[in-house]
């Protein structure tokens, strides 16, 4: 037999590195990245998008609802308030559903448009760009920042560096206070913090998050995206040939190199020169310091800054835009991207199912929790009038934000006599402990263990029908 194993050509892809003779101040992956400012449609969209969510982050904890903070995750009281919804530890399944929905939403978006979460919505990216903006304000553009760092320390360098770091500290502190304000009353937090009256742990957590913000956005930056964030490592498993990512069109751009603006297309074709003029701007504007022309890389956060820089160069050269663009592997190969594909449809279906289940959990949630504890000191006791009595302790949690009245009844026994309050008022968020006893005629008891049900129902006028049924046992073993 002459069976042959098929051989696939895996000739290594040529990696284009900028020539040191043409571009100064080259850096290694561990050296500081001086990000160049760029303007364009994607940069404008990213800034608008980022400021919108930044504004939401800053304003939401200040909103008031029914005389209290609208959004407050009170860990000390184990109570999460979101406008008219109050969540308790018993509602942990809701939190699980929210995380599941967020995960599948991330999978869906990544499969469709790559790592756009990192480039347009990730807090790390947003705060990094804010810190870079302060760098530009106090230290100047990219070239000026490089020269400033190469200079020896003088008064001009000292005050510029000091002003930059002071602005970073202020932004970090305001960010930390706002974040902690989601877990503690924010109005009192700001007043107490700046008057040095906050408690020990509030102060510790505020300073801790301020330090994290200062370190991440000011110093770590791209290291968070390339080495610490796990998303960078597993995102590629969700990619396919139709995933839209920031990509360099090598077929159109190579061979690259400088040329005169007057060189027409025919001359370039004769000399085998592509559209890439090797200006290196796509590298200079990249916040993670990569060269997008080297192909798909896990460090790319799909922010699109290289697209704006390249489009600006194409406009100046009077070439067609899109040498670097959001495109797919299929389009680069001459085909078309398929939006409706099994993986993407699968993620969409599962996401819709998870959202539906989350909504069902929310709409069917009863703002009342009841726990029954039998008296463990005695199985039963006989009253003076000959009835058999069991003792219970009811713990009633009002999961709403308003005071409620509840009516308590027992089913499963014949003519039960209840000793204890049968109509109670419970404040919003309060756990009410109610001792209660149930007694019946022994001649009506047919079994040594009888299943009974405590029915707790809200009786407030105008309120929705809120009722909770909790099962327990009635014991009389001496039958």
UniProtKB/TrEMBL annotation:
Pfam assignment, any one: Fer4_5
The record, for SUPFAM superfamilies, names: 4Fe-4S ferredoxins
Could you confirm whether the keyword Transferase appears in this record?
A: no
Show the stretches that span the lipid bilayer.
Answer: 48-65, 94-114, 166-186, 198-217, 344-363
- UniProt KW keywords: 4Fe-4S, Electron transport, Iron, Iron-sulfur, Membrane, Metal-binding, Transmembrane, Transmembrane helix, Transport
One GO MF term on file is: metal ion binding
- Domain 4Fe-4S ferredoxin-type intervals: 267-295
Q: Name one GO cellular component term.
A: plasma membrane
The identity of this protein, by name, is Cytochrome c oxidase accessory protein CcoG
Q: What organism does the UniProt record list as the source?
A: Neptunicella marina
Gene encoding this chain? ccoG
């Amino acid at each position: 037999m002459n069976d042959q194993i098929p051989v696939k050509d895996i000739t290594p892809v040529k990696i284009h590195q900028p020539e040191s003779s043409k571009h100064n101040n080259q850096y290694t992956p561990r050296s500081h990245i001086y990000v160049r400012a760029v303007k364009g449609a994607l940069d404008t969209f990213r800034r608008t998008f980022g400021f919108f969510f930044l504004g939401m982050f800053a304003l939401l904890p200040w909103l008031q609802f029914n005389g209290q903070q609208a959004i407050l995750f009170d860990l000390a009281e184990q109570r999460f308030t979101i406008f008219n919804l109050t969540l308790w530890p018993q509602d942990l399944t809701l939190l699980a559903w929210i995380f599941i929905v967020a995960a599948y939403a991330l999978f869906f978006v990544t499969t469709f448009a790559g790592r756009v979460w990192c480039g347009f919505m990730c807090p790390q990216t947003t705060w990094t760009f804010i810190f870079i903006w302060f760098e530009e304000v106090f230290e100047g553009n990219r070239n000026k920042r490089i020269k400033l760092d190469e200079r020896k320390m003088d008064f001009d360098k000292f005050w510029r560096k000091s002003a930059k770091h002071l602005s970073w500290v202020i932004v970090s502190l305001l960010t930390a206070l706002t974040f902690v304000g989601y877990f503690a009353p924010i109005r009192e937090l700001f007043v107490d913090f700046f008057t040095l009256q906050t408690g020990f742990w509030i102060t510790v957590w505020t300073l801790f998050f301020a330090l994290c913000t200062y370190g991440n956005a000011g110093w770590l930056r791209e290291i968070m995206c390339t080495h610490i964030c796990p998303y960078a490592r597993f995102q590629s498993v969700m990619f396919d040939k139709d995933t839209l990512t920031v990509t360099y069109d090598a077929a159109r751009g190579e061979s690259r190199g400088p040329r005169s603006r007057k060189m027409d297309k025919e001359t370039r074709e004769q000399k085998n020169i592509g559209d890439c003029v090797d200006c290196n701007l796509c590298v200079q504007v990249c916040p993670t310091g990569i060269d997008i022309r080297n192909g798909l890389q896990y460090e790319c956060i799909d922010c699109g800054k290289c697209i704006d820089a390249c489009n600006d160069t194409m406009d100046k050269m009077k070439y067609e835009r899109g040498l670097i663009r959001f495109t797919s592997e299929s389009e680069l190969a001459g085909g078309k991207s398929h939006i409706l594909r099994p993986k993407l449809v699968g993620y969409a279906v599962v996401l819709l199912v998870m959202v539906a289940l989350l909504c069902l959990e929310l709409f069917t949630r009863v703002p009342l929790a009841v726990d029954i504890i039998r008296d463990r000191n005695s199985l039963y006791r006989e009253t003076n009038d000959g009835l058999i009595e069991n003792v219970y302790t009811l713990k009633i949690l009002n999961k709403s934000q308003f005071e409620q009245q509840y009516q308590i009844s027992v089913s499963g026994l014949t003519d039960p006599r209840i000793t204890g309050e049968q109509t109670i008022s419970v404040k919003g968020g309060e756990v009410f402990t109610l001792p209660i006893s149930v007694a019946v005629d022994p001649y009506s008891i047919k079994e040594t263990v009888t299943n009974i049900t405590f029915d707790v129902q809200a009786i407030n006028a105008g309120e929705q029908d809120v009722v909770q049924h909790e099962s327990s046992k009635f014991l009389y073993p001496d039958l």
